[in-house]
Design brief:
Blueprint: H1 2-36, H2 39-70, H3 74-107, H4 118-141, H5 144-168, H6 176-209
Length: 221
C-alpha cells in the first residue's frame, strides 16, 4: 500500500514538472506573439489555457485523494500541501501568459510594444521563461541552491519593470495613453509570472528543509 502511495505521489510531482514545461512554452509563445504580431501563436496560447486549467484540477483532485486516504505526515504532508499551492501558481502563470497573448491579439496586426521598449520586453520574456523552467527543474531535482538562485532572476525582473516606468514617465514618451496602458499591464503580467516562479522555489525549499527561507526578498506564502 505504501509503495503504491509513494508511486502516486511521485506521479503527481512528475505531472507538476511537466505542467511547468507547458507553462514555460506558453510564456515563450506569448512573448513571440506579442513582439512579432503572430496571431496564430496568440490564439494557441489563449486556447491552451483551458488545458492548463484541466491539469490543475486533475493534480489537485489526486493530491486531495492522497490526503484523505493515506493520512500523510511529516515530509509527505509537506509535499502534498506544497503541491496544492504550486499547481495554483502554475495555473496562474498560464493565465498571465494568456493575458499577454490577448493583448497581442487585440493590437494585431499592430504590435503593442513600442520599439523603444522592445529590448526590455525581449529580456522580460526570456527571464520569465527561464524562471518557470528553473522552478520546474528545481521541483524535479529538489536542489535548494538552484531554488535560491531564482531570487537573483526575480530581482532582475524587478529592475526591468522599474526601467519601464522610467521610460513611461519620461518627457520623451511619444506613444500616447493607449500604448502606455498596454506597457503597464504587460510589464505587470511578466513581473507576476516571475513572482509566482520565485514563490514556487520558496515552497520547494520548504519541501526539502521543512522551513520557509526567512528572507525579505522572497514572496510571502
Amino acid at each position: 500500500m505504501r509503495d503504491s502511495y509513494r508511486e502516486q505521489l511521485d506521479d503527481i510531482l512528475t505531472d507538476l514538472g511537466e505542467m511547468s514545461q507547458i507553462v514555460a512554452a506558453a510564456v515563450r509563445s506569448s512573448t513571440t506573439a506579442l513582439l512579432e504580431a503572430e496571431i496564430h501563436l496568440a490564439e494557441q496560447v489563449i486556447g491552451d489555457d483551458e488545458k492548463l486549467d484541466a491539469r490543475q484540477s486533475d493534480i489537485e483532485a489526486r493530491a486531495f485523494q492522497l490526503l484523505a486516504r493515506q493520512s500523510p505526515v511529516a515530509g509527505e504532508l509537506r509535499i502534498l500541501v506544497a503541491t496544492l499551492r504550486m499547481v495554483s501558481e502554475l495555473e496562474r502563470m498560464g493565465d498571465l501568459a494568456a493575458h499577454v497573448a490577448k493583448i497581442a491579439r487585440m493590437r494585431y496586426p499592430g504590435i503593442a510594444v513600442p520599439e523603444t521598449l522592445r529590448p526590455n520586453f525581449v529580456r522580460m520574456g526570456d527571464v520569465a521563461e527561464k524562471m518557470v523552467i528553473a522552478a520546474g527543474q528545481t521541483l524535479v531535482d529538489r536542489n535548494v541552491q538552484n531554488a535560491q538562485e531564482l531570487r537573483e532572476r526575480d530581482e532582475e525582473m524587478d529592475e526591468l519593470r522599474r526601467t519601464q516606468f522610467r521610460v513611461l514617465l519620461s518627457d520623451d514618451w511619444e506613444y500616447g495613453v493607449e500604448a502606455a496602458v498596454d506597457v503597464a499591464l504587460l510589464g505587470r503580467y511578466y513581473e507576476r509570472i516571475a513572482d509566482h516562479a520565485a514563490s514556487m522555489a520558496r515552497r520547494i525549499i520548504y519541501v526539502v528543509t521543512g522551513q520557509f527561507p526567512e528572507n525579505e526578498f522572497w514572496p510571502q506564502p
